[in-house]
Amino acid sequence: MSADLQQRIPHLVNTRKAAEILDRSPATLKRWRYEGVGPAYVEIEGRVSYDVAVLIEYIDENTRVPSVRAYMEESREAL
């Protein structure tokens, strides 16, 4: 099997494991699916799975860097 093909094969996990990865409850992921928010998922014959690469991408997309203003306020509080 070529390296390119191996990279494209998803590593699927169930909702419980995906919830652990995201530090959320399985019920939250179910609600997100219902509301059409959250990470993309795969549904095959009624079974929901998440690709670990998609979960990591979702985490990366939602990672925030503190603003300069917040940093300055924290610095003042430390004094």
Question: Which architecture does the CATH hierarchy give at level 2?
Answer: Orthogonal Bundle
Total count of domains: 1
User: What spatial order of strands do you see in the largest sheet?
Assistant: 1-3-2
Percent of residues in helices = 55-70%
Largest sheet: 3 strands, antiparallel
Could you give the count of β-strands? 3
- What percentage of amino acids are in beta strands? 5-15%
Which sequence of SSEs, written as H and E, runs from N to C? HEHHEEHH
Describe the protein's architecture and organization.
The protein has five helices and three strands; from the N terminus they run H-E-H-H-E-E-H-H. It is α+β, with helices and mostly antiparallel strands. It has a single domain (3-78), classed as Arc Repressor Mutant, subunit A (Orthogonal Bundle), CATH 1.10.10. A three-stranded antiparallel sheet has the order 1-3-2. Helix 2 packs across helix 3. The longest helix has 11 residues, at 68-78. The chain is flat, with a radius of gyration of 18 Å. The mean pLDDT is 89.
Task: Give a quick summary of the entry.
By secondary structure, the protein is an alpha+beta fold.
List the SSEs and their pairings:
Elements: H1 3-8, E1 12-14, H2 15-22, H3 26-35, E2 42-44, E3 47-51, H4 52-61, H5 68-78
Antiparallel strand pairs: 1-3, 2-3
